[in-house]
Amino acid sequence: MMNNPSLLTVDEKLKASFYYSVSKISKSVGNNNTVIGPFNIDKDAIELIAELLYKKLELYSEDLEAFAKNRKQSTVNVEDVKLLARRNPQLKEHLSTFIVKNLSDKNEKKEKMKINKKTSDKKKDPKIEVIEVD
Fold first, then answer.
1. Which residue, 54, 61, 80, 126, could crosslink 67 as a Cys pair with Cβ 3.0–4.6 Å?
2. What would the pLDDT profile of 62-107 be if each residue is shown by its tens digit?
3. In whole angstroms, what is the distance from residue 41 CA to residue 33 CA?
4. pLDDT per residue over 23-75, tens digit each?
5. Are 84 and 94 in contact (CB under 8 A)?
6. Rounded to whole angstroms, how far apart are CA atoms 118 and 109?
7. How far apart are CA 119 and CA 132, in angstroms?
């Protein structure tokens, strides 16, 4: 890898950033391990882990792109990600839990924002009377 970051390609910058993240996560996991106690991970091992994960993510992205194209869409959605995890029951369960916990909260917030916007818009127009219905 080059020393001057401005001369790196986008792919090289992504890999460097990814390696940095994997390195930080590995050190954190090693330092905070409660099962066997703190441990260190060799730099070569971290580099290999980062490379394996990067390649796996490239494969995942190709699969997700294919799923979206199969639906005749250009955007990957939640259903595509769930389809990607279909062969890994634990991952599929984790994703389902994550979706229920996080995405439903976001949808509720969006709905509340829409409702608040509608009522605030109505309040601005003196000709419209706001009636709340339970």
1. 80
2. 999 999 999 999 999 999 999 999 999 999 999 999 988 887 776 6
3. 12
4. 999 999 999 988 888 999 999 999 999 999 999 999 999 999 999 999 999 99
5. no
6. 14
7. 10
